[in-house]
C-alpha cells in the first residue's frame, strides 16, 4: 500500500534520479579501474621516487588521493541509499527486473559506510609501493615546510641578496618539486600513511613525515569547501587497532601543536611572503629580463603564497573561535596583490622567457642530455629512439621562432617522457631509472624548461590559481571589506576583482552545467567589488569637496563685513563688543603648519584617496568570463551621480519656507567642487571634462536623465513663484537705476532681500549656472505667465468691446470720451495686469543682459557674429527669416525689436471660434483700453516718480516695456503694422493725459506729472516711436515741466 504511490510516479522517479544513480555507477566503475591499476603496479613492482620519476610518482599519489576523497565524499551523501533503492524499485516496476548494476552498487555503498576503514584493509597489498612513494617525499616536504625565520635566514626568493649571482639561472636537482603544492603533499602524507599505517611503526622517516604534516594543519580540503578533520578521523581509525596507543598519543600531541602553533607559524610565513613577493615584483618590473634565469623563483613564490592563502581560507572557516586572531589576516589583500603583479609580469613578458628558454634548451639542455645518453651503459632501442627524439626536438629550436610568433607545443615530448618513466621504473626494465638518477633529474629540469616556452598560462594556473574563493564567498567579501576599511590596505583592493578572473579555471569539461553558475558568481562578485571601491572613492571625494566648499565659503564677500567694521571702529577709537571676544580666524590659517607631523582631516582624506585611486587605476580593464570590466568607468558613473545630487543639494531649496541659495554662492561652491574633481585626474586616468559636460548640461534642462528636478527648474520656480509674486503683491519694486529688484518697506518683512537675488552679479552667476539652455527655459516660463495675463486682458477687452470701439474713433471729442470712459469696467485690472507683464519683462531683460555679459566673456567672437547678423537684417526681409535671427540673438542674450519668445507664447493661444480679423481687432482695442486707462494712475498715491530709482514705487514705469513688447508681439502675430498701432496708442494716450491737465480735483491729479513721464518712457523704450512723433501729440514743454516738478518734489520730501 505504501509503495502504491510510487507506482504512479515511477516514470518521474526514473527520469529525475537517473543522473544521480548513474553517477554512483561511474564512481563504482572508476573504483574498479583504480583497483585494477593498483594491482598492476604492484605486480610490476614499480619504483617510485618523487625526485627522479616525478610525473609517475605524482600521478600515482594523486590517483590514490582522488580515489580516497571520492569514497569519503560518497559516504557523506546522506540520501545515497534512498536514491539507489528508489531508482531500482522504479526500474523493477517499469522493466520487470532490477538494474544489472544494482547488486554491486548496493554492496559498494554498504562496504564503504566507513570508507577509510575499508580502504585500510584494501591497501594492505599496496602498502609497499605507496610507502616507497611517500618516503621519497623526505627530501622535499621537510624542506618546504619550514618556518618563516628559516626562510628569512636562507634569504629565500631574494634576487638581490647575492648580486653577483643575479644572472645565474635558478637551478635545483628537483625542479618540479620546488613549486609543488604543499597542500597536495600534506594530503598525500596524511591519507597515504593512514592507508598504509603499518609503515609508521617500522620506519622512523615515515613517522616523522606524518607527524610533521599533522602538526601543520587541522583539516584538509577534500573538494572545494568540503573539509576533512584529520586528527579526529585518524584517532577514530587507530583506536580499534591493537598496539596503536603510541600512534594515538602522537596524534593527540600533533593536534595540540597544530591548534597552538600552526596559526602563528602560517601568519609569520604570510608576513615573510608579503615582503619577499613585493621585492620580487619590484625587481622584475624594473628588470623583466631576470624573468628568464629566475623563472623558478617566480613560480615558487606564487606556489608558496597560494598555499598559505588557501590554508588560511580553509582554517579560518573551520577553527575554534578562541584562537581567531591568527586566522584573521587584514593584510591578505597585499599578498594577493603581489601574486597578481607577478602573474601580470609573466603574462606580459612571456616572449622574454620564451627567448631565454628556447636558447637554454637548444644550447645547453640538448648537449647535456646527448652526453648523458651517450654515456649510458645500456640503452634499449625503444628508449634510445625516444631519447634521440628529445635531443633532436631541442636542437632544432631557434630564437627566430619566438620572433616570428610561432606557437610551440611540447606536450608530445612531455608525454613521451612520462611513458619513458613508466618503461624504466618497472622491476625488470633493461634500463632502470633507479640506477640512472642523473638522467631523471636532468629530464625533470628539461621538462620545466619546455613548460617555460609553451605552457606559461597553465603554469600560472598550476601554481597560483585561487578559484577556491568562489566557494568561500562570505569569507571573500569579509576580506574585501577589511581591506577597504584599512587605509594602508585599500591600494591593494583591486586584487579582489582580479581574483574573480580565476574562477573559471575551477570548471571542468565533464561538468559543463556549472559553468554558468560559477560564471555568474564571478561576474556578480567582480561587479560588487568594483562598485564598492568606486563608492568608497566617491565618498572620500565628496568629503574633500565639502571641506573645500567650506574653505571657499570663508572667502565670500559677505564675511569681510566684520573685518571692515573692526577696522573702522579702530580708527574711530570706538570700543564695541565685549572684551576678550575671540578674534575670528582669517581664511588661510589652515595652511600654516608649525610641525609637519600635524595631520589635518584633509591630509587624511587625500592620503586615503590616493591609495584607493592607485587601485582603481591599476588596470585599464579586466576580462571575467568573457565580460570586460573597466574599474575607472565605475568611478566616473558614481562621480556623475554624486555631482548631480550635490549641485541640487547645494541650492538648499526649501519648498516650505521658499528659501534658496544665492546664485553667486552656489556658483562659488560648484567651482570649488569642480576644482576638487579636476584634481582627481592626478590620481586616476579618467576624463573629468566628460563628467562636467554630462552633469552640467543636464542641469541646464528642466529635468535630469533620472527625471529629477535640476537647478534650472528650482531657480525658475523660485524666481517666478517667490520673487515675482511678491513684486505683484507690492512688496518689491524694480529699480531701473540699480538694475535690480528691491524690497519696499512694508508691515510684513520678507524673509529674503530681493536685491541679493536680482542684482547684476547674481543674474550673471545665474547665467553661468544655467547656461543659455537654462536661461531659455527661464524665459519660456516667464512668457507662459505673460501669455496667461494677456489671455485675461483679452477677456476684459471683449467685455468692453463696444465702448472701446467708439472711444477708438472719438479721441478728439473730450466730452464724449469722458462719458464713454465712465461706461468702461475693470480699468484697474487692465493696468494691474499690464504692470505685472512689465515687471516680468523687466526681470527678463535683466536675465538676458546678464546672459549676454557671460557669453561675451566666454565666446566673444561668436557673440559679435550674432550681433552682426541681428544688426544687419534688411528691413524688407521676410518676417519668418527675421524671427529666426531674433531667436538666435535672444538665445545669446541680445535685445530684439520683437521678442521671439513672446511671439511664440502669444501665438499659441489663438482661439478656435474667433476669426483672425476679430483677434486683430481685440489686439487693437487692447492698446486702446490701456491708452485711455493711463490717466487713472494719477490718482494713486504710489504713482509718484522717484528720480533716485528712476521709476515709480508701484512699478508703473514697467508699463513702458509691457506696452512696446506686447504691441510688437501681437501685431507681428496678426501681421499688422506695429508702428501704426503704436502711433494710434500714442494719440489716444496723449489726449487722455492732456485731459487731466485741465482738471482741478486735487485727488485725481495728485501724481499727474509722474504719469506724464510714462509717455516719455514709452517712446524712449520703443524702437518704433520717435520724440518727433511724441512732440506732435504731446507738447515737450509739459514733459520738461513734469520732470522739473518731480525732481523739485523729491528734493523737498527728502529735506
TrEMBL record:
Residues 567-592 are annotated as: Disordered. This is Nck-associated protein 1. InterPro entries: Nck-associated_protein-1. It is found in: Cell projection, Lamellipodium membrane. The keyword Transmembrane applies. GO terms for biological process: cell migration; cell projection assembly; cortical actin cytoskeleton organization; neuron projection morphogenesis. The lineage of its organism: Eukaryota, Metazoa, Chordata, Craniata, Vertebrata. Residues 578-592 have a biased composition (Basic and acidic residues). Belongs to the HEM-1/HEM-2 family. It comes from Eurypyga helias. One of its GO terms (cellular component) is SCAR complex. Transmembrane segments: none annotated. It comes from the Eukaryota. Keywords: Cell membrane, Cell projection, Membrane, Transmembrane, Transmembrane helix.
Amino acid at each position: 500500500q505504501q509503495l502504491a504511490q510510487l507506482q504512479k510516479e515511477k516514470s518521474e522517479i526514473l527520469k529525475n534520479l537517473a543522473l544521480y544513480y548513474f553517477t554512483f555507477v561511474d564512481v563504482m566503475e572508476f573504483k574498479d579501474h583504480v583497483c585494477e591499476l593498483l594491482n598492476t603496479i604492484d605486480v610490476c613492482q614499480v619504483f617510485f621516487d618523487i625526485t627522479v620519476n616525478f610525473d609517475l610518482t605524482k600521478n600515482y599519489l594523486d590517483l590514490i588521493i582522488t580515489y580516497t576523497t571520492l569514497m569519503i565524499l560518497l559516504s557523506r551523501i546522506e540520501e545515497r541509499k534512498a536514491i539507489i533503492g528508489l531508482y531500482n524499485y522504479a526500474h523493477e516496476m517499469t522493466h520487470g527486473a532490477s538494474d544489472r548494476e544494482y547488486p554491486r552498487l548496493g554492496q559498494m555503498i554498504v562496504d564503504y559506510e566507513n570508507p577509510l576503514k575499508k580502504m585500510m584493509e584494501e591497501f594492505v597489498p599496496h602498502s609497499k609501493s605507496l610507502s616507497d612513494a611517500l618516503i621519497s617525499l623526505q627530501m622535499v616536504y621537510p624542506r618546504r615546510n619550514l618556518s618563516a625565520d628559516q626562510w628569512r635566514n636562507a634569504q629565500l626568493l631574494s634576487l638581490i641578496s647575492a648580486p653577483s649571482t643575479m644572472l645565474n639561472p635558478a637551478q635545483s636537482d628537483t625542479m618540479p618539486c620546488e613549486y609543488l603544492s604543499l597542500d597536495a603533499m600534506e594530503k598525500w602524507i596524511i591519507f597515504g600513511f593512514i592507508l598504509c599505517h603499518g609503515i609508521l611503526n617500522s620506519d622512523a622517516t615515515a613517522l616523522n613525515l606524518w607527524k610533521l604534516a599533522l602538526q601543520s594543519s587541522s583539516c584538509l580540503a577534500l573538494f572545494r569547501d568540503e573539509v576533512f578533520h584529520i586528527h579526529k578521523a585518524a584517532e577514530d581509525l587507530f583506536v580499534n587497532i591493537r598496539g596503536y596507543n603510541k600512534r594515538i598519543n602522537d596524534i593527540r600531541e600533533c593536534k595540540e601543536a597544530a591548534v597552538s602553533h600552526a596559526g602563528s607559524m602560517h601568519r609569520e610565513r604570510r608576513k615573510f611572503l608579503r615582503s619577499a613577493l613585493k621585492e620580487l615584483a619590484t625587481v622584475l618590473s624594473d628588470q623583466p629580463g631576470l624573468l628568464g634565469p629566475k623563472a623558478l623563483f617566480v613560480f615558487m613564490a606564487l606556489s608558496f603564497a597560494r598555499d598559505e592563502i588557501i590554508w588560511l581560507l580553509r582554517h579560518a572557516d573551520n577553527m575554534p573561535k578562541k584562537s581567531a586572531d591568527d586566522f584573521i589576516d587584514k593584510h591578505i589583500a597585499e599578498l594577493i596583490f603581489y601574486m597578481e603583479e607577478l602573474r601580470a609580469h609573466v603574462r606580459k613578458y612571456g616572449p622574454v622567457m620564451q627567448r631565454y628558454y628556447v636558447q637554454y634548451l637548444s644550447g645547453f639542455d640538448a648537449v647535456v642530455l646527448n652526453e648523458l645518453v651517450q654515456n649510458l651503459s645500456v640503452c634499449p632501442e625503444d628508449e634510445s629512439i625516444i631519447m634521440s627524439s628529445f635531443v633532436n626536438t631541442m636542437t632544432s629550436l631557434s630564437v627566430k621562432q619566438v620572433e616570428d610568433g610561432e606557437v610551440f607545443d611540447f606536450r608530445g615530448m612531455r608525454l613521451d617522457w612520462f611513458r619513458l618513466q613508466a618503461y624504466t621504473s618497472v622491476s625488470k626494465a633493461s634500463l632502470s631509472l633507479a640506477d640512472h638518477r642523473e638522467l631523471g633529474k636532468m629530464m625533470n629540469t628539461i621538462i620545466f624548461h619546455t613548460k617555460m616556452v609553451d605552457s606559461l598560462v597553465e603554469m600560472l594556473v598550476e601554481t597560483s590559481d585561487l578559484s577556491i574563493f568562489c566557494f568561500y564567498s562570505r569569507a571573500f567579501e569579509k576580506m574585501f571589506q577589511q581591506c577597504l576599511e584599512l587605509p594602508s590596505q585599500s591600494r591593494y583592493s583591486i586584487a579582489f576583482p582580479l581574483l574573480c578572473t580565476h574562477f573559471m579555471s575551477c570548471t571542468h569539461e565533464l561538468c559543463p552545467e556549472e559553468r554558468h553558475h560559477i560564471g555568474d558568481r564571478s561576474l556578480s562578485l567582480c561587479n560588487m567589488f568594483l562598485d564598492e571601491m568606486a563608492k568608497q572613492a566617491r565618498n572620500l571625494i565628496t568629503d574633500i569637496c565639502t571641506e573645500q566648499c567650506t574653505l571657499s565659503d570663508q572667502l565670500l564677500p559677505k564675511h569681510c563685513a566684520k573685518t571692515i567694521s573692526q577696522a573702522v571702529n579702530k580708527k574711530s577709537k570706538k570700543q564695541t563688543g565685549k572684551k576678550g571676544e575671540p578674534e575670528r580666524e582669517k581664511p588661510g590659517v589652515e595652511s600654516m603648519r608649525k610641525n609637519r607631523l600635524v595631520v589635518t582631516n584633509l591630509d587624511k582624506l587625500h592620503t586615503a584617496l590616493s591609495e584607493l585611486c592607485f587601485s582603481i587605476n591599476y588596470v585599464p580593464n579586466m576580462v571575467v568570463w568573457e565580460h570586460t570590466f573597466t574599474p575607472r568607468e565605475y568611478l566616473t558613473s558614481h562621480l556623475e551621480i554624486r555631482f548631480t545630487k550635490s549641485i541640487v543639494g547645494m541650492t538648499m531649496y526649501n519648498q516650505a519656507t521658499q528659501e534658496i541659495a544665492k546664485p553667486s554662492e552656489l556658483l562659488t561652491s560648484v567651482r570649488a567642487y569642480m576644482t576638487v574633481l579636476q584634481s582627481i585626474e592626478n590620481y586616476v586616468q579618467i576624463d573629468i571634462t566628460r563628467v562636467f559636460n554630462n552633469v552640467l548640461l543636464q542641469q541646464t534642462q528642466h529635468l535630469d536623465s533620472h527625471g529629477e528636478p535640476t537647478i534650472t527648474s528650482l531657480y525658475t520656480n523660485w524666481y517666478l513663484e517667490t520673487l515675482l509674486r511678491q513684486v505683484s503683491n507690492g512688496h518689491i519694486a524694480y529699480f531701473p537705476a540699480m538694475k535690480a529688484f528691491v524690497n519696499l518697506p512694508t508691515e510684513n518683512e520678507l524673509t529674503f532681500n530681493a536685491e541679493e537675488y536680482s542684482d547684476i552679479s547674481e543674474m550673471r552667476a545665474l547665467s553661468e549656472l544655467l547656461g543659455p539652455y537654462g536661461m531659455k527655459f527661464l524665459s519660456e516660463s516667464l512668457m507662459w505667465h505673460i501669455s496667461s495675463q494677456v489671455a485675461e486682458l483679452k477677456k476684459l477687452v471683449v467685455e468692453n468691446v463696444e465702448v472701446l470701439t467708439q472711444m477708438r474713433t472719438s479721441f478728439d471729442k473730450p466730452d464724449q470720451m469722458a462719458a464713454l470712459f465712465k461706461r468702461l469696467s475693470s480699468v484697474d485690472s487692465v493696468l494691474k495686469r499690464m504692470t505685472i507683464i512689465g515687471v516680468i519683462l523687466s526681470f527678463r531683460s535683466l536675465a538676458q543682459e546678464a546672459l549676454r555679459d557671460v557669453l561675451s566673456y566666454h565666446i566673444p567672437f561668436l557673440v559679435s557674429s550674432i550681433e552682426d547678423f541681428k544688426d544687419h537684417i534688411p528691413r524688407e526681409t521676410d518676417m519668418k527669416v527675421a524671427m529666426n535671427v531674433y531667436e538666435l540673438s535672444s538665445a545669446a542674450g541680445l535685445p530684439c525689436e520683437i521678442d521671439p519668445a513672446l511671439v511664440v507664447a502669444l501665438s499659441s493661444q489663438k482661439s478656435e471660434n474667433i476669426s483672425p480679423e476679430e483677434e486683430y481687432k481685440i489686439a487693437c482695442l487692447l492698446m486702446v483700453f490701456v491708452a485711455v486707462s493711463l490717466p487713472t494712475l494719477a490718482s494713486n498715491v504710489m504713482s509718484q516718480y522717484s528720480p533716485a530709482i528712476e521709476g515709480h514705487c508701484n512699478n508703473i514705469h514697467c508699463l513702458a516695456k509691457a506696452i512696446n513688447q506686447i504691441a510688437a508681439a501681437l501685431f507681428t502675430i496678426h501681421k499688422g503694422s506695429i508702428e501704426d498701432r503704436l502711433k494710434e496708442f500714442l494719440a489716444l494716450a496723449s489726449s487722455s493725459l492732456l485731459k487731466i491737465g485741465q482738471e482741478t480735483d486735487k485727488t485725481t491729479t495728485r501724481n499727474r506729472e509722474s504719469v506724464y513721464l510714462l509717455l516719455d518712457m514709452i517712446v524712449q523704450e520703443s524702437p518704433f516711436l520717435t520724440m518727433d512723433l511724441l512732440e506732435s501729440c504731446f507738447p515737450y514743454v509739459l514733459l520738461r515741466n513734469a520732470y522739473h516738478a518731480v525732481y523739485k518734489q523729491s528734493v523737498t520730501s527728502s529735506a
